[in-house]
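Obj.: predict assembly geometry.
Materials: sequence records (below).
Method: joint structure prediction, all chains together.
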Amino acid sequence: MHELSIAQNIMDIVNEQLSVNNLSRVTKIGMRIGKLAAIEPASLKFCFEIIARDTKAEGAVLEIDSVPIRYRCNDCQLDFILDELDFICPNCMRNRLEIISGRELQVVEMEAY
Amino acid sequence: MKIGIVKDILEANDMIAEGNRRLFKGKGTLVMNLMSSPGAGKTTLLEKSISALKDRVGIGVIEGDIQTELDAERIHKKGVEVVQINTGGACHLDATMVSQAIEKLDLTNIDILFIENVGNLVCPAEFRLGEDMKVMILSIAEGEDKPLKYPLMFHESQVLIINKIDLLPYCDCDIMRLRENSLKINPNLNIFEISCKTGRGLDVWYEWLIKKVGGRH
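Observations (raw structure tokens):
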């Protein structure tokens, strides 16, 4: 729902990296977005495209790696992946679960010149 | 040229939230982030809680809304310090908005600071503000399936307040199922059943709050 402000944050990270590395143009931005991050990739790409217009990131591709929701059961220690947020351990059927991944919202890589 | 970086997009927010948290801790202020969908009764619960508790503890309020100062005016009438944040369209409060708002509050006299988030069951769960506790309010007219549909909010909260229980005879909501669904997602949830209309259950909530403040009064 707040993809536009996330796109702005990505832009800030990109600009910082370009300036640190003394580069003038970014062509690709690699991201990891967890399924729990409440971010819609298509909407984020759309927002980023608009924000990137007339900047050093114009036309840059957002490559989004979707991170599944991984849990660890605090009772039987099972480590497992579920597509949905269903807080039941498939092994012991209890619900003392910890979310190990799925909330990521990261820029992990850039291609720039 | 390929640049490898791992940068959390919400890192800036988390850092500011941590600053807020330290400031609150230093002043001894307990901070509650109130979250719900629009109309669940956040502001009414605040009005009731302020009336009941303001002689026993110092209370401050930060009101978050997309627009208008209507809620701040309601809280102001109750005679406590209040700051309104208008997000201008943003669907949640973030740590920067809160850090600007606390500059306008004298925290030394505030034992409990309530931060009323923007009415929304999704985005506020993603943004730390520096709070001690996330408190969710759900009115029973919203239905018992909400924990299953908006699980992250229930998972992140320490407290669930089920409001408007006076409407139970008129709604199809199964409150036992609502409790089950909520505890399935978060077995550690503290659940309160209340009606701001009739006052039922409010005393239990007030006493719990007083205990949380640490019995300093």
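Conclusions so far: Chain B has one domain: 11-213.
To do: check interface contacts against the pulldown list.
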